[in-house]
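thread: overnight batch results

M.L. [08:02]
morning all. the overnight job finished for the chain we discussed friday. pasting input first so we're all looking at the same thing
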Amino acid sequence: MAKNYTFGKCLGMSLLLLVLIGLCFAEHSEAQERVLTLDQLIQMALDTSPELKMADQDIVAARSDLAKAKAGMLPQLDMQAIIGPVNDAKEPIVVPTTVKIGGVPQSVGKLEDRDSSTIGFFGRLEFTIAQPLYTFGKISNRRDAAALGVEVQQAAREKKRNEVILNIKELYYAYLIAGQGKKAAAEADDFIQDAGKRIRRLIELKAQNVDESDLYRLDAFSAEVKAFAIKAESGSHLAFEALRTAAGLPQNAKFRLDRTELPTTPKPLGPEGDYVMAALANRPEFTQVKRGAEAQKKLIEAARADFYPSFFAAAVGSVAVAPGREEMDISYFSDNFNNASAGVIAGAEWHFDFGITKGKLNKARAEYKKTTHALDFAERNIPLEVMKNYQDAAEALNEFKAFRQAAIGSRRWIVTAFSNFDVGVGTARDIFDAIDRYGKNQGEYLHSLYNYHVALARLEYSTAQKLE
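M.L. [08:03]
and the structure it wrote out:
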């Protein structure tokens, strides 16, 4: 017994130790910094986007409208159940009596009620099951419009999805370029510090090609670089937080990007016309507007059908019971308190008003014209948007290539200026000019590189397809 107890105790301690190790490992894993790619951030944003979730609910609502419109062709059941007070009564009887008609006594019967002074109750159930037969398109046109409405909302969601992807890309590129800006500022500061050491050393040696004013000018350069570094740091922090929020990551999430610099390998662009044709074929806005116009056209037909009658078949029935009243089982007399009846009928319903139906038809026509104008607007402006983004991408590509070459040249200029300064054939001004030009070229290069990637992202958005 003692051995079993010891074994069980050891087993329990082992399991507890394993649980504690697992918890510690889980906490360590959660604390680890995640490395995320652009595609992963996009997927996170798509999975958690409140805007897409709202768009999903718009689709659910549109499908509910479609289900409701389809149900219009099914039978409709109306029931009414009531209960209330009524006089108790016995079945009326015929009492013979003699009356004079033309002075001649004649025997006639008089119906005598036998109402009681007591109050009882009655209950009645009435039902109607109506099946539409022909409605001149009131139901079918609204059903078709609801089906098109689902496609409209699906296209609207696709448009919102593309916007979420574009937003993540812009934030991703902004964060990377801000990091590159910080590196460029740090590198420029290194050049300035190096130049300061060289100038101070030559001042101590009382060289003729330097003086104290060179240090003052160097301080001015240093202040500008520090201000740029502060802006880059602020931009990096803001872009990081915006990227975290857009991706749906929690406030305390630790992550870094899979790369530290924007790619510099250019993507060749095809003919401009191909991108315009792709946009006309793929943009969800066109589907949204086209289906919306078709839905409005169906609603016009439905509104026009409201001027005509609707034919239906129906099953009707009624059951009423009043325990305190005797039933008079004579079909010629209707008894609203004791009866049981059912039957099948056919009929027509025709609604007339003085301008309401016509007003609905005119509104439907106006909405249809509005959607056709929206389609015309999209066909005019979306190709223009594509061409602008295409030209922006081509221009930014040429700019970043040129500024990259300029940045390389200005770096070589700095190396040469330092070498000439050290051997006494160059001046501090040569160094200042080289550092100033290097800083400007680096800024222009990074700006053009960012513009290029953003222009590509917007070109992808405007064509609704991924650029290979």
